[in-house]
Design a protein that fits this description.
Blueprint lengths: L4 H11 L1 E5 L4 E5 L1 E10 L9 E3 L4 E5 L4 E10 L11 E11 L7 E10 L14 E4 L8 E4 L2 H14 L5 E9 L12 E4 L12 E7 L4 E5 H8 L5
Antiparallel strand pairs: 1-14, 2-13, 3-4, 3-6, 5-6, 5-12, 6-11, 7-10, 7-12, 7-13, 8-9, 8-11
Helix pairs in contact: 1-3
Length: about 230
């Protein structure tokens, strides 16, 4: 009696498919940089914003403390369609000094707000939706980046507040607000771009998301068919 081996192998092919999930890798994606500028206040101790402009991207006090400024950075949330996908995040920017090194204040990094509009507001000077990192600036010129704890803080917030293609506003705000004048120095603070090219900054807001996962299919039955021989 002849046994139809190909038929048996076909049956094995159907029942012996092995699905091996591909390893999930992560990728870092930069969100779209829109612009940067400074929200300023001339309201003294009340700490409320009065103007917004892109003449300089500065945080500190100027003209003898008569004007206080907070740098604001605007990005469009383009890296992913779903905040639940976000596994990590970071904010980086190059910092120089405007005048002498501050001794009476530092700068804290905040998420100011999100919006469907990229238009800045005067109130971006004092508004905060999230304190991302206290003393983000230190007191020297440096390439700034979030530490692990601050990255986790920002990531957790983004996972529930992300709205794809809306805009997110970051700000570096003086701590304390409206710092006291530092001796005879009229202009003391931090700068985040070319003062003669307002709105230009090397700031980067990135998020880490998983790459699309796939499945590698190993057909044991298929291999058997390739290796098998017709037997009689």
């Amino acid at each position: 009696m002849n046994l139809k081996i190909p038929t048996l192998l076909s049956s094995l092919t159907i029942h012996s498919l092995i699905f091996v999930p591909a390893a999930s890798a992560a990728t870092i994606i930069d969100n779209l940089y829109v612009e940067a500028g400074r929200a300023t206040s001339t309201n003294g101790s009340t700490g409320t914003g009065t103007t917004f402009g892109s003449a300089g991207i500065d945080t500190g006090y100027f003209t003898g403390g008569g004007t206080d400024s907070h740098a604001v950075f605007i990005f469009q949330m383009t890296a992913t369609s779903d905040g639940a996908n976000i596994e990590g995040s970071n904010f980086t920017v190059s910092q120089t000094l405007y005048g002498p090194a501050p001794t009476g204040f530092v700068g804290d990094l905040h998420v100011v707000r999100t919006s469907s509009s990229a238009s800045p507001q005067n109130s971006d000077y004092e508004t905060s939706a999230l304190l991302v990192k206290a003393n983000f600036t230190g007191t020297t010129a440096a390439a700034l980046s979030l530490d692990t704890a601050a990255q986790d803080t920002l990531t957790t917030w983004l996972q529930t507040n992300w709205v794809a293609d809306d805009y997110i506003f970051f700000s570096i705000q003086t701590d304390p607000i409206n710092p006291a004048k530092q001796g005879s120095d009229n202009n003391v603070g931090f700068r985040y771009g070319n003062n003669n090219n307002g709105g230009s900054s090397d700031s980067v807001f990135s998020v880490t998301v998983p790459e699309p996962s796939g499945a590698a299919i190993v057909g044991l039955g298929g291999m058997l068919m390739l290796a098998g021989r017709r037997r009689h």
